[in-house]
Amino acid sequence: xxxxxxxxxxxxxxxxxMASAGDGISLVAFPWLVLQRQGSAGQASIVAGAxxxxxxxxxxxxxxxxxxxxxxxxxxxxxxxxxxxxxGVPLVAWTLGAGAVNVVALAILGALSATFDPAGMTARQSMxxxxxxxxxxxxxxxxxxxxAILNLAFxxxxxxGGLMIAExxxxxxxxxxxxxxxxxLLAMAVLRLEGAGKPHHATRxxxxxxxxxxxLRFVWSLRVLRTLAMIDLVVxxxxxxxxxxxxxxxxxxxxxxxxxxxxxxxxxxxxxxxALGYAALSKYGSRRVIMLTAVLTFGxxxxxxxxxxxxxxxxxxxxxxxxxxGPIQPIYAYVVQTRAPHQLRGRVTGVMTSLAFAAGxxxxxxxxxxxxxxxxxxxxxxxALPILMxxxxxxxxxxxxxxxxxxxxxxxxxx
Length: 415
Fold this sequence. Notes:
The chain is built from 16 helices and no strands. By secondary structure, it is mostly helical. It has a single domain, classed as Growth Hormone, Chain: A (Up-down Bundle), CATH 1.20.1250. Helix 2 packs antiparallel against helix 14 and helix 10 (about 255-280) runs parallel beside helix 12 (about 310-325). It starts with 6 loop residues before the first helix and ends in a 21-residue tail after the last helix.
């Protein structure tokens, strides 16, 4: 038996922090560059949609790639390609002039960066059970830490993005994103962990089509995974336009880039606290109750935000949304890790993540034109009300009771 070591887990968490911080900066910088030049929420939603559309397909492909090429290798390649795509924004401005950074260029570069992000995320998440066993941590503790790191990254990323846009401009801010991806790549380059290398040929998917099909069949065959995927799909599709288009539009109209950063920071700080608290909360409360509470409170908080109250109220509601939703992704990860066998973990993770983004492009493409035609408040309510209704439906779903059943697969800590 190998000696226990926290180094692999810490490297994965650090790589996640850096790559996700880069994503967080992009979340603010890409729409802001559009709004700064054209001022149209419709055009901003086109760029946001271009960033989101590839996520559905690339996440499906990422899961198969992770199970075929190996988790560590895929993570490194994804970071390199994402960083290169983001660096293309200042490079275009430098070689062709600032005027060349238009809606088309931003949409293309944003889409390229987003295409590779899911592969890195899926690869790192697929390594968590082995890293937890090596460190002697429980899955709940490890997933809680991982989700907390994601939220911390989206405190650092959007907050830094908003501040840097205000100080040095959106073009220069993009260099920060490329540097963050580079640091994630370095962390994965020194990682050594069981199961992170290239899988044995007998366990690899035969091809892209068969790999995706195996992941989809596995998720659909388990009622609890199928239900969780549908819930995540609906909630993500409804909330993503708020964060990517409506908030930037609202604060752009008021010329308040820092306040946009503060709002996204409040969301992530709440998520950070909620995710960190899940490890302790899971010892005393059922996963089903935690999830129902989260979705219902999430819906109520977004309804308050839809009223467009003063900034302090928006910040509090964003923090509440993050707080109650922080435990949700650790629960999702736990279910995947304890239901899916090792050789399928990448594909199942990829399918679950891609389904969450399936309706995202539609929501984004509708949100922009609706905002231009009917105003921010109408659009906020049009998205917030279905989130609340989804929470009410979840109360009567019997499949969610399976969240607290004994796991079928688990990687146990080494003695």
